[in-house]
């Protein structure tokens, strides 16, 4: 249904809900979009499979970055033990590894963003579906990958925290 120019969609929807029976649902465009997203993500197998895939990807991302950082710590353990011996705290070393993890995240994020934009363009051209990567979605991706990198850094410095400079040399 198309409204006349200047009509308030929310007011018209409220009036229709008051007049129509309870078994009829009236949605504004944003309400319909939210209803469809909720339906496809929570009530269908497709949504559950994609949700499960996101969880697996999150855990795998943490583990890959953890392995990378843990390998660097193992290779340079004597140097980090020396820093610890001369007074650098575990907190400082955790901060430096968090910074390194964030740098690795940024290095990986931008090519991944370019690939995602390419995939969206292919989907749009091949299926004629109106798919777009919004700034909110990209920002959510940045926040999630940032969280993954900090978790990985925290997990990887466990060996470094336990390192005793006297035992390494």
Topology:
Layout: H1 9-19, H2 29-42, H3 45-75, H4 77-85, H5 90-127, H6 135-156, H7 158-162, H8 165-168
Helix pairs in contact: 2-3, 3-6, 5-6
Short description, anyone?
With 169 residues, the protein is an all-alpha fold. The chain is built from eight helices and no strands. The longest helix has 38 residues.
Molecular structure report:
This protein has 169 residues and is mainly alpha-helical. It has two domains: 36 residues, no CATH class; 117 residues, no CATH class. It is built from eight helices and no strands. Helix 2 crosses helix 3.
Individual helix count: 8
Unreliable segments of 5+ consecutive residues = none
The first-to-last residue Cα distance is 78 Å
Question: Main beta sheet, described?
Answer: none
The fraction of residues assigned to DSSP E strands is under 5%
> What's the alpha carbon Rg, rounded to whole Å?
25 Å
Helicity level: over 70%
**What integer is the average pLDDT?**
88
